[in-house]
Amino acid sequence: xxxxxxxxxxxxxxxxxxxxxxxxxxxxLAAAVSNAGAMGIIETSSGELDVVRDEIAKMKDLTDRxxxxxxxxxxxxxxxxxxxxxxxxxxxxxxxxxxxxxxYTAQLKDAGLTVFHVVPTLRAAQKAVAAGVDGLIVEGxxxxxxxxxxxxxTMVLLPSVTKAVDVPVIAAGGFLxxxxxxxxxxxxxxxxxxxxxMVSSAESPVHxxxxxxIIDAAETDTVFLNSHTSPAxxxxxxxxxxxxxxxxxxxxxxxxxxxxxxxFGGDLTAxxxxxxxxxxxxxxxxxxAEIIATCVAECxxxxxxxxxxxxxxxxxxxxxxxxxxxxxxxxxxDR
Length: 335
Fold this sequence. Notes:
Largest sheet: 8 strands, parallel
Structural class: alpha/beta
CATH architecture of the largest domain: Alpha-Beta Barrel
Number of domains: 2
Distance between the termini: 36 Å
Number of helices: 14
Strand content: 5-15%
CATH class of the largest domain: Alpha Beta
Helix content: 25-40%
Radius of gyration: 19 Å
CATH topology of the largest domain: TIM Barrel
CATH superfamily of the largest domain: Aldolase class I
Order of helices and strands: HEHEHEHEHEHEEHEHEHHEEHHHH
Shape: globular
């Protein structure tokens, strides 16, 4: 069992958190994650708080498991009332992102909520800990969505942060399966966040064209936009985003495009479809419960196999440390 500070704080048996993608992280997806034993998250970055309120109400009908809400500070419609809104929904776990951890942490904690802040650098992590957060989501630059203009890869960022802080850490950016989950644990994290994997899932509300674009993507099929300004973002490579990739004059957010057309209409030429580099390892649209259960089982198998090989000094019977693959991944080796 993967029991640690994250599972204890969040009240879930599995230390996996679903990323809070705007317009995507709503009740159908989040409830599927919570029902699978992980932590489903409802977004607020769309700014559609009346819709978000309805989605939270639906969550209470769809699951009796814990779930949380994200406050993406740079994108919420009314920054002055968002905390009161979240507290009023009765959730006990909140992630904050895209802004200073000093802004809302004390108010949220005074209301009894557990607060994890998303950080892209060691300095930001130290600032968040000083602000009193309960934990961190440490997000490497290979992840999809909005990013620091100076991205740091998870392999560098994660151990830098876990060595420097004592609060529990959830690792984000590049995670998909048991091998990457085990790697996160080895680097000091106590959980992982899944984003692109959840966008591709069967319960994700996005159009099938977006899911298929993830499935078809190679590991090089994302672009990093807005490295000259903020927010930067990582998106799937399409003709629309390729035209913006090396444009260091304009802000790519001006070309974000039509959310309804891209997200739900499937027209990937109409705007920006966000996605992480891990898209290059996703081969199918799978149910959330399968994604999570496979991830946990593989992680436990990898950890056991590594202990057998390198601690006990005997060949692991499963060969999991060297041969374990996500179902279907072998078909991509010759891509």
